[in-house]
Amino acid sequence: TAHPWLARLDPTAPQAVLLEQTDPLLAAAGAEAFLQTFYDLLTTLIGAGLTERLLRSVWAHSLSGPPQDPSP
Fold it and tell me: Whole-angstrom Cα distance, residue 33 to residue 15?
C-alpha cells in the first residue's frame, strides 16, 4: 500500500522494462521496502544471525545498509 505504483506495473514485462517505467526515486524506495520485508520475513524464519550472514553481500552493495532491528 505504501507503493501503489507497483500494482500498476505489468508483471509479464521483463524486469528492466518495469524499472524503466518508474521514476528512479520511486523504484529505489520500492526496492528498499521489498528488501526490508524480505529481511523481516527471513529473520522470523531462520533467525537474525543467519539472515545477516546470508544477506551481507546484498547490504554491502546497498546505500542504506542493513535494516535496523526495532526491538531492543
Answer: 17
Find out whether 32 and 64 touch, Cβ atoms under 8 Å: yes
pLDDT tens figures, 26-66: 888 888 888 888 889 999 999 999 998 988 887 776 655 55
Q: Which three cell numbers stand for residue 34?
A: 521489498
19 contact partners, CB below 8 Å, separation of at least 6: 27
pTM of the model: 0.60
Averaged over 12-29, what is the pLDDT? 76
- Of the candidates 43, 36, 37, 40, the one whose C-alpha atom is nearest the C-alpha of residue 64 is 36
The distance between the two most distant Cα atoms of the chain, rounded to a whole number of Å, is 42
CA 53, CA 46: separation in Å to the nearest integer?
Answer: 11
